[in-house]
Write a structure and sequence with these properties.
This protein has six helices and 13 strands. It is an alpha/beta fold. Bound molecules: flavin-adenine dinucleotide (FAD). Flavin-adenine dinucleotide (FAD) binds next to helix 1, strand 6, helix 3, strand 8 and helix 4.
Length: about 270
């Protein structure tokens, strides 16, 4: 019997840092770019699978979720190839243009629909939006505790978990009641590569698609209409390199440098 259901939220992102922006629509150009599983989410998947391996496989089920366009089914197949039990694609035109709040609303509805998820694992942040906001917002939506930057799950059972988290200069350990949500950092594990068996399972895997109707979501709760923020312009800042030689004695140079930095509001 399934004692612990784990939901792993993963996002498909452009597999390049050379992000190109469509000047007309102000959105990222995703066509012709290889899309990948968001790097931090590979660690989230691995941690879910490792928890199942700690228990007799029967007791734990790992479910991968993504909200995205139809082609993001590819990352769910990849997640199945490295060990998740099943996957669900949340896809609907109504979900387009979602900000982090609308994204977490959609994910929360799906997790409630799956029912009885004891742990939700997310990546620390994505390569493209890069806000790190979805984790805490999702926990808020589900009214459950959230631990960010998790670097180790020390103990876990159906009701409690002991987590180690990475801070800038130390580690902190928390004991929290489940259900709960965590976001993970790269220190937590080393993601495995797909096994042959995993690849075969992924090839024939049926991945259900849940739309707004299936989630019983009102259109004004999701996508652009359910968003409090909208990305109005994405641009790469132009960095100007200018060299200015400062002449004179050391004292004169320091004075001149101080004046220049003051004018640039750099001090
Ligand atoms: C360049 C750019 C800038 C943006 N800036 C903002 C902004 O400032 N504010 C804002 O509200 N929105 C912003 N967005 C939109 C935002 O990317 C989307 O709302 C996105 O779905 C979630 O935000 P994120 O990528 O920052 O995720 P993060 O909060 O960084 O993601 C953390 C974790 O949440 C999970 N997750 C995130 N997205 C999904 C998904 N679609 N499906 C399943 N799991 C997911 C993953 O585990 C991920 O590792 C931006 C988008 C782009 C491309």
């Amino acid at each position: 019997m399934i004692e612990i259901k784990i939901a792993v939220c993963i996002k498909q992102v452009p597999g390049t840092t050379e992000i190109k922006i469509d000047p007309e629509t102000n959105t990222l150009i995703r066509e012709g770019i290889e899309n990948i599983i968001n790097p931090f989410d590979a660690y989230a998947i691995e941690e879910g699978v490792r928890i199942r391996e700690r228990f007799d496989g029967e007791e734990v089920e790992v479910i991968a979720l993504t909200m995205g366009p139809p082609q993001s089914k590819e990352i769910l197949k990849e997640a199945i190839s490295v060990g998740v039990d099943r996957a669900i694609l949340l896809s609907d035109r109504a979900f387009a243009g979602a900000d982090t709040w609308a994204t977490s609303t959609t994910l929360a509805k799906a997790i409630n629909k799956i029912g009885d998820c004891r742990l939700i694992i997310l990546g620390k942040q994505t390569l493209d939006g890069d806000t790190g906001q979805v984790g805490p917002e999702l926990a808020q939506r589900l009214d459950i505790p959230f631990i960010g930057y998790a670097s180790g799950i020390l103990e876990i059972n159906r009701n409690k978990m002991k987590v180690k988290r990475l801070m800038e200069d130390r580690y902190e350990t928390f004991e929290i009641n489940l259900p709960a949500a965590i976001s993970v950092v790269k220190d937590i594990n080393t993601p495995r590569v797909p096994s042959l068996r995993g690849k075969i399972k992924a090839k024939s895997a049926e991945i259900p698609v849940w739309d707004a109707a299936r989630l019983e979501a009102d259109e004004d709760e999701v996508g652009l209409s359910g968003s409090y923020t909208q990305v109005v312009k994405i641009f790469t800042p132009k960095i100007k390199h200018e060299i200015k030689m400062i002449e004179g004695s050391t004292g004169e140079q320091v004075e001149q440098l101080y004046k220049e930095l003051k004018e640039l509001n750099a001090i």
